[in-house]
Protein: Transcription termination factor MTERF4, chloroplastic
Amino acid sequence: MSLSVLRRRKPSLSVIANRQAQLFCANPSSVTPSTQNPCPQIPHLQNPFRVLRFHASFSTQPSKFPEYEMPTVTWGVVQGKKEKLVNRVIICDYLKSLGIIPDELESLELPSTVEVMRERVEFLQRLGLTIDDINEYPLMLGCSVRKNMIPVLGYLEKIGISRPKLGEFVKNYPQVLHASVIVELAPVIRLLRGLDVEKEDIGYVLQKYPELLGFKLEGTMSTSVAYLVSIGVSPRDIGPMVTQYPYFLGMRVGTTIKPLVDYLVSLGLPKMIVAKMLEKRASILGYDLEETVKPNVDCLISFGIRREALPFVIAQYPQILGLPLKAKLSSQQYFFNSKLKIDPEGFAQVIEKMPQIVSLNQNVIMKPVEFLLGRAISSSDVAKMVVKCPQLVALRVPLMKNSFYFYKTEMGRPLQELVDFPEYFTYSLESRIKPRYQKLKSKGMRCSLDWFLNCSDQRFEERLQGDYIESVTIGPSFCMGGKLELPGSEILSDEEDESDDEVLYRRTVSL
Structure:
């Protein structure tokens, strides 16, 4: 009796088969099962070989690289230990036949067939890489074309790196082929956009410094930005700084950025001025402090530049800290002495007022000088004019001709006034000299060139309304320690607003 009970409790195989068939159906309510076949046949499952064709219909959709042949389907191949060793030897022999040294691939899992490895090599060659490039970083051969190369290259093209430049990008930074688009690449791009790097500049930034794609977001990139903002760099200017010089994102604050900033401050530059310099010339951060910056500062002093004038020189021309300065200063000093009859002391004064002269072409310098000499001005007077106003040597001669013609024909003043006030040539003839001279002429006033030119429009109008001509006072100047000293007033105290540094920057610096 117990045996019959067990037989009743044990379900038949046919019942189990019917239940499994019903569960396997995709939509059993939409079909009418028969007694012979409880689940209607799915066409692409009738033949097991049609599964591959069904999958291939999706895997061969047009990609972003239509000229590249998609790799063949090689998954699902099960190999034993012996087969793997044999195939590895075959693949290494194939690579050696191409001139590729496979030594670094010993610990790397290689594909199961030579055909797959051939597809990888040919794919890289179509990108523009040579066998020598592959030998520089053979680990790129461990990247799958389908799983690694195509997704990464497609993303790089999407963010702005043009297809013809992808090969050069991979050559410069082949490690990118190992990266995950979602986990590693996309977060870096989001960070750059968060720093206000323009979308159209992302590709340009990465081509200059592709190693950015390998940085950790919470590491050097964040700390360098935070430090620069702490010393006064505007957060809105971080994006342009990254576009101009992205390498500072990889610099360590404690060993590179901060020591440079501290040294510049020790020379007398206010921190806010240093911040403004970095905003305009982020490449300053790339100057080596011990090998370039400090020797250049010592070089300036050795050529007669006063220590108290160093802040003004650096603020005017920050690039002077990174030049091969000794050679340039030696060449220019000899030129000024031999051609312009300006002694080393006068040359030092010229550099203090216009340090850009160290990089100015000597042919450019001679053109304004020859113009002045051709106007019956003696060489000694021309030398005095250049020392007093070095900007003369950077002016365009046609503009100087127009200003000189107006001075002689309309104003009718002696040449000595030009020698005493060479800054006359630096003012615009149409927007300042002519209109102001006409107002003076209509009022019957006669005054020095300095009095009516070296002031703002508002101050000029106030002077016209005055009953007397007051003496000209000197302008603002640097004071060691970074504060602004105004004529007739005390040095601004530490409690003053930081905008004082902004005033100093606007009045004395033109980067």
Observations:
- Residues 81-98 form the longest helix (18 residues).
- The radius of gyration is 38 Å.
- The chain is about 55% helix and 0% strand.
- Residues 1-78, 475-511 have pLDDT under 50 and may be disordered.
